[in-house]
Amino acid sequence: MQNSACLLFVTRQLRLNVRTCVVLYGKGEGIMARIHRIVKFLVCIGLITLLSGCAATQNRESTGEYVDDSVITAAAKNVIFNEPSLKVFQISVETYQGIVKLGGSVDSQKAVDKVGEIVRKIEGVKSIKNDLIVK
Fold it and tell me: Is it true that domain 63-134 has CATH number 3.30.1340.30?
């Protein structure tokens, strides 16, 4: 009698454990399916992290804005260099979010105005901060 009661108790415990496993892991889900689900989750988290790293903030440009600013800076340097009336190599050009900052020294106020005028015509320039100094 004790053996049958003990066997009945063990059988009930096994059924409870099997039911618990089915509830926790899903019916028929194998280890590979769980690993696949975890890998997909981790890839999604990685993509979200990667894409949020390219977003712009108040203090930092996005990747696209950085490229645009680099193009504006290169175009401004090219236009200044190719302008025959400006024989200066002491002009620095920096661009941040479409705002061009001009620095350095030139020979006359006319040159300051000319640099501002030709840089303002470049596509993508929102404004100019002209800090050029006349020698």
Answer: yes
